[in-house]
Amino acid sequence: MKRTIFIFLFLFIGLGTSIYLYLNQRIVPIEQVFPSKIWAKPIENLPNLKGVGAPTAKNCGGCHTEIYEEWKRSTHANALSDIQFQSELAKPSSPKWICLNCHIPVQNQRETIITGLQNGDYLRPVEIPNPNFNIEMQAEGVTCATCHVRVDSNFKESFVIGGTGGTTPPHPVKIDRKQLLNRCYDCHNETYSLNESLICSFQTGTELIATKSNESCSSCHQPEVRRSFVKPSLNKPIRTSHKHGFIGGGVPKTFDLYQDQIRLGYKPGIVLSDLKVENNRIEVLLRNSNASHHVTTGDPERFYRLILVGIDPLGKIIYKEETTIGQEWVWSPAAKKVSDNRIPYGKSFEWKIELPNLPIETFQFQAVHVRLKNNTSDFMIQSSGYVPSKYKANVDKIKDLYPHSSLVIETKYQLKTKSRKDTPLEELFKRNVNRKGE
Ligand code: HEC
Ligand code: HEC
Ligand code: HEC
Ligand code: HEC
Ligand code: HEC
Q: Which of 46, 72, 147 to mutate to test the pocket of ligand 4 (most atoms within 8 A of CB)?
């Protein structure tokens, strides 16, 4: 009797262990774990493009010289080298392959191909070496091919997606302007919770659609310019082209990129539409006139800091008030949005302040777009031990190397004359080069 129980128990444990082992070793296809999620897979390996060679941005830049120079200065081109990205990517909890699917989105940019997930667990990808890995293309972040190059499924040949047509390019082209314009949504409009504290919350596309405007993301982020699509020596006609700097909130990834922000199309989304002082009360009115989505949008850490100071006749600051426009989240134990006072398109934000009785002669108002908080970069330095050696030194020097914020509106208001003088944007961006921190 005792023996039979033991045998049964033994069989039971054995069977249980094998089922457990089987399930745990089972390789589940990515599409099964993340059905119809574009970011769950990179764009398939792209064979060499006829007339071009490897579909790297550098090769495209051989003919599309100006577009290449603009794109080189964009946040897209910096999407892998970004100090903040490298620091967050290195966290042991980050599902690196998923992050890379949006930050280096073409399979040629990846050392390995992911064939599935062990037991469907996104932290256990099964990887094999990628024979088409191109290390030069890896460094290019959101490279040209992300939006422009695909493989023809019949001929297994790469082709370029264009929006215009004509004038005999040396490479195969298919015209599909709509597909090109809608591509932004794949990465900039995703809301998904991987687990309680790791969520993605980009609703820029949804915000744009809600305004019912006819604009696309490119209408503003790729301003039109009349020029040849290619270098002058190819003798092609002047046409309507689009700047490729993809300028957003005006906080670039390195200090030397400040000088290109305005040239490539930066303007603040919010406009200081009114500032008035009456009976010990000051009213600041800001309107989102320039961005057909919320300001701030995209990364939930971004916010605007509004600063009002009162200056006495001797030039001394004797009064200061601050407030913020943005979202506030707590990330642990579970991610949760706590507050949100961002400005939707066409709407205004009113800041009313009761003033104390002080001998103020001039008020100065400033709006600062913050991309990274000081205490977040402090934390990055503390945990830089995880960061690969190639990027670690940069993370340790993040305070000096990485713009955290930009001053984008400044005005001075003279109480006696009730006159307002705005500082030109060009001057603010010269000063931004020397600002540090949030
Ligand atoms: C669905 C596509 C997508 C995925 C997946 C994704 N990102 Fe991003 N990431 C973006 C976009 C779009 C932006 C730009 C948002 C902005 O500038 O406001 C961005 C910006 C960032 C930034 C810069 C934030 C800033 O304000 O400058 C960091 C850091 C970052 N991502 C880290 C990660 C990490 C780590 C992961 C993986 C856990 C990840 N991303 C996964 C699309 C993605
Ligand atoms: C050897 C020169 C050369 C190289 C290299 C090259 N192109 Fe072109 N491309 C051209 C020419 C010429 C045109 C047509 C120019 C015109 O229409 O005025 C063109 C047109 C285009 C167009 C516009 C198509 C349209 O009608 O809307 C796109 C988009 C494009 N190329 C993308 C790329 C990308 C992406 C790469 C790199 C993978 C690349 N090109 C590499 C020469 C080149
Ligand atoms: C494959 C994913 C992907 C696609 C497609 C994509 N982006 Fe991005 N975009 C990103 C990532 C990732 C970042 C941020 C990189 C970082 O901060 O390190 C970004 C940053 C930006 C920024 C910069 C924000 C700032 O303040 O610096 C703008 C603007 C932008 N994208 C516009 C566009 C537009 C317009 C399109 C479509 C034509 C587009 N993006 C398509 C992934 C993508
Ligand atoms: C994030 C997506 C994205 C990336 C990355 C990107 N482009 Fe474009 N590109 C577009 C869109 C969208 C258009 C079409 C805009 C339109 O027709 O309204 C375009 C248009 C073009 C055109 C046609 C001429 C023009 O200016 O309209 C050329 C040529 C071109 N891109 C080349 C490149 C090259 C070369 C790179 C890399 C150095 C690159 N693009 C990177 C989205 C992108
Ligand atoms: C009517 C013009 C307009 C359109 C259309 C538009 N944007 Fe913007 N966008 C702006 C302006 C202006 C800013 C700068 C906001 C600021 O920081 O004051 C901006 C900022 C951004 C930023 C940086 C985050 C921030 O809040 O500064 C990202 C990312 C972005 N836009 C992506 C997109 C995407 C994706 C689309 C399409 C779904 C889009 N934008 C459509 C004008 C526009």
A: 147
